[in-house]
Amino acid sequence: MERSGYDHEILTAGIDVLCHNVNEYLRSLKCFKETSSETKRCQSTIATNLRELEDGGRRQQMSTYQYETAKCQLKVQLMECDIGVWKNKCSDSVAGLKNEFECNVLPSSCKNNRNLQNSLQQTCAIQKFARQLRSGSSKRFSLTSVMMTILSASIVLLVL
Questions:
Q1: In angstroms, rounded to a whole number, what is the distance separating the alpha carbons of residues 155 and 160?
Q2: Sign of dihedral through CA atoms 109, 111, 115, 119?
Q3: What is the pLDDT at residue 153?
Q4: How far apart are CA 8 and CA 12, in angstroms?
């Protein structure tokens, strides 16, 4: 399962962020309902850069570490571009939740990459998550949270 990119701990960390912030997550659905042209541009640029990395990696015979570092750099760039767009479209609390979620689901190979630490310390700084702005974020367990956890686990099982 690891080869398929499935990482249970990472997935659980992402689900936990959403389950502990159900009200903000539900509010965020309105904001994220439509993808903006700026977000599409972010995704398109990164997709192009990823294709170039794959082609260049084969030609230049990059080491696995170099390739993974470059791929992780692209993921972080997409996060930064994407969050910049959503900050202009959504409330700070919603953009902060998205940022926290994205940082939590970043693969551990990227989180642990020593070449990305400066970038990650900025992009994934706790103050960028805007936790203090979230309503109800102090409620750790609620019926809605439990239901979201069960629903999320069910979706994961269906995907597998």
A1: 9
A2: positive
A3: 54
A4: 6
> Which of 124, 126, 94 lies closest to 112, judged by CA?
124
- Of 53, 129, 119, nearest to 80 (Cα)? 119
Cβ 140 vs Cβ 20: under 8 Å: yes
Q: Which two tokens stand for residue 149?
A: 């956890």
In this predicted structure, the answer to whether residue 13 has a pLDDT above a threshold of 80 is yes
Cβ–Cβ < 8 Å for 91, 23: no
Query: Of 34, 20, 7, which Cα lies nearest the Cα of 101?
Result: 20
d(CA 40, CA 53): 20
Does residue 104 have a pLDDT over 80?
yes
In this prediction the pTM is: 0.76
DSSP 20: T
d(Cα 37, Cα 61) in Å, to the nearest integer?
A: 35
